[in-house]
Specification:
Elements: E1 9-13, H1 17-28, E2 32-36, E3 48-51, H2 53-61, E4 72-73, E5 76-80, E6 87-92, H3 96-100, E7 105-108, H4 109-121, E8 131-133, E9 138-142, E10 147-150, E11 155-157, E12 160-163, H5 170-174, E13 181-183, E14 186-194, H6 195-200, E15 211-216, E16 224-230, E17 235-243, H7 261-265, H8 273-280, E18 283-288, E19 291-293, E20 300-301, E21 304-306, H9 321-335, H10 345-370, H11 400-404, H12 408-420, E22 428-429, E23 432-433
Parallel strand pairs: 1-2, 1-12, 2-8, 5-15, 12-21
Antiparallel strand pairs: 3-7, 4-7, 5-6, 9-10, 10-11, 13-19, 14-17, 14-18, 15-16, 16-17, 20-21, 22-23
Keywords: FAD, Flavoprotein, Monooxygenase, Oxidoreductase
Domain FAD dependent oxidoreductase: 10-122
Family: Belongs to the paxM FAD-dependent monooxygenase family.
Length: 448
């Protein structure tokens, strides 16, 4: 235990996947955690959530009961021809667990949230169970006194405040960050298809493939269909992207009135008839408004910080949004643990910023490129021997090795050593082993 360690009162603003994750990480580190959620969790619409090995590893370290989430363990990524549906390329995940120590899980959002909530609020595991306060919408934060004011009139103090309140974050504004953003040239409709309904209709049972499957996304075009199975394969979650018309989607909100099947299908007259048939029996069709945020200059100020979409909103095309929030939570759990925290909250948050900001900014940038070029997507970015492979900059491609070989403990120790002006002895640079050759040709630690 580091000298000076003390138990903190932590206020987490936002009770979504990121908020529950950081509650787990910080309660396990020995702190008293209260989660403030603006809603009562009623009326959520379900969609799939991707959790690759770099996220799954923390679920296991935190002893989350992953089986409660009823995941599909992915075995491959498949890229299909837009019109025929024939496979164009595949990235196999057969050796994924062997290489990276953990599987690639695909969850239904409600199941994943319930799984994390049970772990955060439950008696099992290390630490005192976190507490959840619903119908507490954050109005403002006073950084001098570290008090949170809620719209219901309550004002509460915490030693540490974590803003996990999503893309419309109030905490972000309190930290003095005012995003430079623009609405994306691409928009999305999401729909759910029940596997049994597809089988009854005589359509392909995509759940048998245990895969993330893609139609389109090539040649700079915005049209793309992404299929992800979840609920143990019982539910097929479709993200349907298309070019935004001028003025569209400005006022769209997730969870509002459902859209019609006809509106969904009108965008895809030439789409493979099998997946077109799936979309034709889709339910819970919801718009997803997509915004592009320029990276923020920092993630922390005084004794408050940002996590997940509050700190680094990104396009969904690397399937890393949830994983980045989980990694954020893991970083805070480590930094405030007995092994690393010396009682200086502001210093710990400065290390959090140094560790997290470069990594999330890199994923943000790669996700924006993958919106119109599927070859930039982690996994497919390794298939560089294919005749149609083309990326903007081969030296800047985000690879599966960079994501999954990353050691956050080493990254934190390197950054802490620099701040404390002591020598760092491990052969790691920013969490990656020196000498490791990434498939984009970069050798970690090599001179430019």
């Amino acid at each position: 235990m580091v000298s000076g360690w003390k138990r903190l009162s932590v206020g987490v603003i936002g009770g979504g996947i990121g908020g529950m994750s950081v509650a787990i990480a910080l309660k396990r580190a020995g702190h008293d955690v209260v989660i403030y959620e603006r809603s009562n969790f009623a009326g959520e619409v379900g969609a799939s959530v991707s959790c690759a090995a770099n996220g799954t590893r923390w679920l296991h370290e935190w002893k989350v009961d992953v089986a409660q989430g009823d995941p599909v363990v992915l075995k491959r990524l498949i890229q299909r021809d837009w019109k025929t549906g024939q496979p164009m390329s595949e990235y196999s995940l057969n050796d994924y667990e062997e290489r990276w120590g953990h599987v690639y899980n695909m969850f239904h959002r409600q199941d994943m949230h319930a799984m994390l909530k049970n772990c955060a609020l439950g008696e099992a595991g290390d630490g005192t169970p976190a507490r959840l306060m619903v119908n507490h919408k954050c109005k403002d934060i006073d950084l001098q006194s570290n008090t949170i004011t809620f719209e219901n009139g309550a004002t509460l103090y915490h030693d540490l405040i974590v803003g996990a309140d999503g893309i419309g974050s109030v905490v972000r504004g309190a930290l003095g960050i005012h995003p430079t953003r623009k609405i994306a040239d691409q928009q999305c409709l999401h729909c759910n298809v029940m596997r049994d309904d597809a089988i009854k209709a005589g359509l392909v049972d995509y759940s048998q493939h245990e895969a993330l499957e893609y139609w389109g996304g090539q040649e700079g075009k915005w049209d793309k269909i992404v299929l992800s199975p979840c609920n143990g394969g019982k539910l097929l979650s479709y993200y349907c992207f298309f070019a935004r018309k001028q003025g569209d989607a400005i006022n769209q909100t997730w969870g509002a009135e459902e859209r019609s099947v006809e509106e969904l299908l009108e965008h895809y007259p030439e789409l493979d008839r099998q997946v077109f048939g799936h979309l034709g029996i889709g339910k819970e069709i919801q718009p997803w408004r997509l915004w592009i945020h320029e990276p923020y200059a920092y993630l922390n100020k005084q004794r408050a910080c940002l996590l997940g979409d509050a700190g680094h909103p990104m396009m969904p095309h690397q399937s890393q949004g949830a994983c980045m929030a989980i990694e954020d939570a893991a970083a805070l759990g480590i930094l405030f643990s007995a092994a690393y925290f010396d009682g200086n909250v502001e210093q710990a948050l400065s290390i959090y910023n140094k560790v997290r900001l470069p990594r999330v900014t890199r994923v943000q940038s790669a996700a924006a490129r993958a919106a119109y070029n599927i070859n930039e997507r982690i996994g497919f970015s390794n298939n560089k021997d294919l005749p149609f492979y083309k990326v903007e900059d081969t030296n800047n491609v985000l690879t599966i090795e960079e994501m999954n070989a990353y050691d956050m403990y080493r990254d934190i120790e390197e950054k802490l050593a620099a701040v404390k002006e002591v020598q760092y002895g491990d052969s790691y640079v920013c969490g990656l082993p020196v000498g490791m050759k990434l498939l984009n040709g970069i050798v970690v630690g090599a001179s430019a």
